[in-house]
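Query structure, 1187 tokens:
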């Protein structure tokens, strides 16, 4: 049922998108009664109020007020008008205070003009209403009560111009406004009409009544229509628009000198001006005409002479702040400013009115738009979610709206109060309407009646869900309607037969199923498959095979869906599926998907440029860009560049919050987007951006976070924004700058770029931050450069510069350096003179001393000669003694070697034929001592090389124990050894056995009777074992443990023991082990006695096969058949001789001829080496080689 119809006003259509930005005393304005506004040459805005003057930089206000007794402040706080002359002076008209001329850069008052009685040349009135400068530089002033006159720029005196004509006295003292007439004259508005002043003659030449013709003569005389403002029409230059006190807006023709039209308030016509008291009129650069009255702000159509009203709404923060509009002004960027007498300042930019706003459909609560669509006639249908109305039909051609609601008594009305989805039927005859609570309806456009298709829970052939979430109808199958429900799955509804088939999560279809029963959107791709947006994943449904494939978010797969709550779908013209979720936008290339069967999603999130990740609707425009609605406004994506442009409520959107699937593209390319405060209509190709390139001002300068004041002799003598250079001390370590871009369109979105030359290598983007701090600048000259980009990212070409000079400390200045050089030169000269004087004085003293010392030196030289001869004699004597000692040592070594070699043969014979164990033991000891002496000599001269063998350790230990058995039994000693693991070691068997014998012999010597000697074996490291021999003797003092292994060292020599020794046994042990790359040491046992230990290397399998065998191979002797034949006669004699019979063996070996064979000579050398070292194993091996 259509329950309402209303005129669709201009202000509710194309101008509904205007969102006013407001400034009041809460934002720093000195007072909310604002009378006038001006933008100076720098771009700063100045606002006059009834309580002071305000300068505005887009972020903050600077206030100028009157201070009694201070001539550098305003005379009065009531500012009535503002004007800036060609020289840049700011003229401040005061209501009751005359005029102040101000330097806008410094804020200082440079001149004051006031009315003084009986003082020629002063103002004729102090209530100044308007100021203007003509081409000659005369400042014209209109006053209330003092008429019109001018201030001469040279004499600074005021001259009044009076009006007289033909004896008719129309003299008026009340002038309100001035308009330049192309530099020929001035139009002056007064309380009695319009006057014209000739600038050449400085005389009034015309006067025109503008009273409404309907006024009676008596009414005309009493009313005397005054003129508040005069504006020349930009298109029809001969037309003046006159804003009057009580006759509305008057159109005046300067050619006929007549008022042609009076546009006044008509209570019966809502399209008339809202008040006859019109204060201001303005035609902006976009071609709009604006009118400000005592009761509202108006958009004016000169052709139709209709007004669209904008009034203050206390419930709407984006309405104008007050209805009493004093002045309308447009700044350089096209922003329109409204000065209100009762609410502060309002502003908007008509150039950027990109989004039409439709709201409050018949009721202030009917703002919630859940769904939108367009029929074939271009009418817009809005599905509402709150308020008494369920649906609105907007006829944009006829400019009216029809509101529909549910009527329980009428079955042909809509079934529910809440509409969730709208879809035009492909036939063009009706609209499918999804509801919340009452299922599916069909609206017949021709009849205006509804048909209901649900819901019947017991009817299995009907739609059984009361809540509709998505609708889709295919043009190829117009009889089939796909219905997505909120909780009951997907329905395939046969419109003709009124039969439906349901697909639900609980039902399987050929092995597949729907991922969730709540379906929010349906889209069809070029393959004919349906894509379903659900609360739990994305589904691809093949309607021919009835197979579902589901896609979900995966933490492990960055190419999976970004979130499982899928809210919107769009298949674009390129065959790309766009998927909106509650955590970003996803892109799926369907052509690649159908080619390789893999769903690879590209994600777009806040990091990509989205303002919010909850996606409500996705629409592709005719330029192939995507428009995406979110919880934080509307965003446009260019898929080719992946660049985002974001819009919010400040750009004219219904609000920042949109609703799911509330959007559609019309046939003419417009896009509709619905939200919680109505919907927006816009044309993407006509969306205009701000192209104004803002100028930047440096607005504040601080040192150590404290503002620097403006003083006559301080760092700043003028405000920082009017200063070119600042000079600082090196002590000013922390300096800060604040700046403002003079773009007043969404200034919070202005961005800043900064560079400090000689400090910053390149420009830095500060974003929206508009201050920067520098610390510890080195002395020098810097240039601060700042430029800004406006709210749409348009960067200014011009940069603001400030030279910053940091003075060095005195000790780093040129003056200091010059002074230091002068002082240094003076110091050097002084030192030279002082030194020269001293040298002369010292020369005399030295000459005397030299004479005396020369005598002494001669005497000392004679003494030194004598001492030198004595030293030479002593040195010769020492040389001879040293030669004798060397000869003696050589003789000793020879004798020792001869004795040892001569002792070996008798000892070998003695060991061979002695039957007594004691005799054999003594001979063996003596033999070991002899061998020790020989081997020590060889090892010291590096002539002894070890013969490596792989030996079983305990076999070698037992052999050593056997050799000292007699000695141990004599003292009744028990030799204890631990044999847990037998080790195979790599050693020179003979040398190592003798080491063991020497250490055991040493232990026996120092062990008391009936005690024990302990032999322990431990594996100490990889491939290393440690053998320790411990006795129960007195031990070795710590201070002697490092020297006990020295040659000829004996404890008896240090009075520690009475046991005599040669001092060669331990020295031999140390050298023998070092020859094998092993170590030896001694410690005192924790209980008692000494513990001697040494290390050996374990046989490694790899070493045996690689290293040991290599050494054996290198030393292996190969005898030829001829060699063996020559040696064969000597085999029986060799086998008959004992190895200890060294003399016989040597004699026999000397008699073996080698016939020039190196192998036989090598064999003989090895045979003698085995004999001297008593190596029976090697001896037998060499003899066996002959066989």
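Result returned for the query:
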């Amino acid at each position: 049922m259509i329950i309402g119809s209303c005129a669709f006003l201009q202000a509710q259509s194309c101008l509904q998108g205007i969102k006013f930005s407001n400034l009041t005393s809460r934002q720093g304005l000195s007072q909310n009664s604002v009378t006038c506004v001006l933008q100076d040459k720098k771009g700063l805005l100045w606002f006059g109020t009834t309580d002071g003057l305000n300068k505005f930089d887009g972020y903050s206000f600077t206030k100028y007020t009157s201070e009694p007794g201070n001539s550098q402040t305003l005379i009065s706080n009531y500012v009535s008008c503002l004007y800036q002359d060609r020289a840049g002076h700011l003229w401040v008209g005061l209501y009751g205070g005359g005029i102040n001329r101000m330097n806008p850069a410094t804020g200082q008052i440079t001149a004051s003009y006031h009315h003084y009685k009986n003082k020629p040349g002063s103002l004729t009135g102090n209530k100044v209403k308007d100021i203007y400068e003509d081409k000659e530089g005369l400042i014209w002033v209109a006053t209330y009560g003092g008429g019109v006159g001018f201030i001469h720029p040279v004499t600074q005196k005021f001259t009044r111009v009076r009006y007289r004509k033909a004896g008719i006295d129309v003299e008026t003292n009340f002038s309100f406004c001035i308009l330049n007439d192309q530099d020929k004259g001035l139009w002056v508005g007064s309380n009695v009409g319009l006057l014209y002043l000739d600038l050449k003659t400085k005389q009034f030449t015309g006067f025109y009544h503008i009273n409404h013709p309907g006024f009676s003569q008596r009414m005309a005389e009493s009313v005397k229509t005054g003129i508040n403002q005069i504006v020349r029409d930009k298109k029809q230059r001969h037309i003046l628009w006159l804003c009057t006190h009580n006759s509305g807006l008057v159109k005046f023709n300067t050619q006929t000198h007549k008022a042609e039209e009076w546009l006044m308030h008509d209570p019966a016509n809502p399209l008339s001006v809202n008040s006859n008291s019109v204060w201001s009129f303005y035609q902006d650069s976009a071609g709009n005409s604006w009118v400000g009255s005592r009761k509202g702000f108006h958009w004016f159509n000169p052709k139709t002479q209709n007004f669209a009203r904008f009034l203050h709404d206390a419930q709407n923060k984006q309405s104008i702040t007050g209805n009493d509009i004093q002045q309308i002004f447009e700044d350089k960027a096209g922003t329109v400013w409204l000065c209100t007498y009762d609410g502060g300042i309002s502003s908007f930019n008509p150039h950027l009115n990109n989004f039409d706003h439709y709201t409050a459909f018949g009721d202030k609560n009917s703002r919630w738009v859940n769904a939108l669509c367009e029929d074939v006639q271009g009418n817009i249908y809005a599905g509402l979610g709150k308020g008494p109305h369920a649906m609105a039909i907007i006829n944009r051609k006829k400019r009216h709206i029809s509101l529909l609601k549910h009527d329980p008594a009428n079955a042909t009305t809509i079934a529910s109060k809440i509409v969730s989805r709208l879809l035009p039927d492909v036939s063009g005859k009706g609209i499918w309407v999804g509801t919340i609570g009452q299922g599916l309806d069909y609206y017949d456009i021709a009849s205006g009646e509804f048909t209901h298709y649900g819901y019947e829970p017991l009817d299995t052939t009907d739609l059984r869900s009361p809540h509709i979430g998505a609708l889709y109808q295919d043009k190829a199958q117009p009889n089939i309607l796909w219905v997505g429900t909120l909780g009951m799955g997907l329905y395939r509804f046969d419109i003709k037969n009124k039969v439906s088939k349901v697909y639900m999560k609980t039902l399987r279809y050929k092995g597949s199923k729907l991922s969730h029963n709540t379906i929010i959107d349906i889209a069809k791709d070029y393959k004919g498959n349906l894509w379903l947006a659900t609360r739990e994943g994305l589904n691809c449904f093949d309607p021919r095979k009835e197979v579902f494939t589901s896609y979900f978010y995966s933490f492990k797969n960055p190419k999976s869906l970004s979130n499982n709550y899928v809210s919107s779908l769009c298949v674009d013209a390129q065959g790309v599926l766009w998927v909106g979720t509650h955590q970003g936008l996803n892109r799926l290339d369907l052509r690649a998907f159908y080619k390789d069967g893999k769903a690879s999603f590209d994600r777009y999130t806040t990091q990509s440029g989205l303002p919010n990740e909850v996606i409500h609707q996705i629409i592709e425009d005719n330029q192939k860009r995507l428009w995406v609605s979110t919880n934080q406004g509307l965003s446009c994506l260019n898929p080719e560049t992946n660049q985002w442009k974001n819009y919010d409520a400040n750009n004219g959107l219904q609000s920042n919050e949109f609703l799911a699937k509330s959007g559609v593209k019309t046939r003419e390319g417009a896009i509709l987007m619905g939200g919680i405060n109505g919907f927006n209509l816009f044309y993407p190709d006509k969306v205009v951006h701000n192209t104004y390139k803002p100028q930047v001002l440096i607005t504040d300068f601080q040192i150590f976070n404290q503002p620097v004041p403006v003083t006559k002799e301080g760092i700043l003598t003028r405000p920082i924004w009017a200063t070119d250079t600042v000079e600082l001390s090196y002590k000013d370590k922390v300096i800060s700058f604040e700046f403002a871009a003079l773009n007043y369109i969404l200034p919070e979105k202005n961005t800043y770029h900064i560079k400090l030359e000689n400090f910053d290598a390149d420009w830095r983007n500060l974003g929206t931050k508009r201050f920067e701090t520098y610390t510890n600048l080195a002395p020098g000259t810097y240039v601060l450069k700042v430029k800004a980009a406006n709210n749409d990212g348009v960067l200014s070409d011009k940069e603001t510069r400030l030279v910053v000079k940091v003075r060095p400390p005195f000790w780093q200045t040129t003056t200091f350096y010059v002074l230091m050089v002068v002082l240094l030169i003076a110091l050097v000269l002084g030192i030279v003179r002082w030194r020269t004087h001293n040298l002369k004085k010292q020369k005399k003293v030295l000459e005397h001393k030299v004479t005396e010392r020369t005598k002494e030196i001669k005497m000392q030289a004679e003494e030194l000669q004598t001492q030198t001869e004595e030293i030479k004699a002593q040195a010769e004597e020492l040389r001879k003694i040293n030669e004798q000692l060397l000869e003696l040592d050589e003789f000793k070594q020879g004798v020792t070697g001869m004795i040892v070699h001569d002792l070996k043969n008798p000892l070998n014979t003695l060991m061979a034929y002695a039957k007594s164990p004691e005799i054999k033991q003594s001979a063996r000891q003596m033999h070991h001592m002899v061998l020790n002496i020989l081997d020590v000599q060889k090892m010291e001269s590096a002539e002894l090389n070890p013969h490596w063998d792989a030996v079983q350790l305990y076999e070698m230990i037992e052999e050593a124990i056997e050799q000292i058995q007699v000695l141990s039994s004599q003292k009744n000693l028990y030799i204890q050894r631990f044999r847990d693991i037998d080790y195979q070691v790599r050693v020179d068997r003979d040398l190592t056995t003798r080491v063991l014998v020497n250490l055991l012999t040493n232990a026996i010597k120092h062990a008391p009777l009936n005690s024990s000697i302990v032999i322990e074996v431990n594996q100490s490291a990889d491939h290393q074992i440690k053998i320790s021999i411990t006795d129960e003797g007195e031990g070795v003092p710590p201070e002697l443990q490092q020297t006990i292994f020295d040659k000829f060292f004996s404890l008896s020599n240090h009075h520690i023991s009475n046991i005599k020794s040669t001092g060669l046994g331990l020295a031999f042990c140390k050298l023998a082990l070092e020859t094998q790359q092993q170590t030896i040491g001694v410690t005192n046992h924790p209980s008692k006695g000494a513990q001697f230990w040494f290390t050996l290397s374990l046989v490694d399998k790899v070493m045996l096969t690689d290293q040991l065998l290599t050494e054996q191979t290198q030393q292996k002797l190969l005898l030829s058949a001829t060699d063996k034949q020559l040696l064969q006669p000597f085999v029986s004699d060799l086998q008959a001789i004992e190895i200890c019979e060294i003399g016989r063996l040597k004699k026999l070996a000397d008699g073996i001829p080698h016939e020039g064979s190196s192998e036989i000579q090598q064999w003989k050398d090895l045979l003698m080496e085995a004999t001297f070292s008593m190596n029976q194993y090697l001896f037998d091996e060499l003899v066996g080689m002959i066989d």
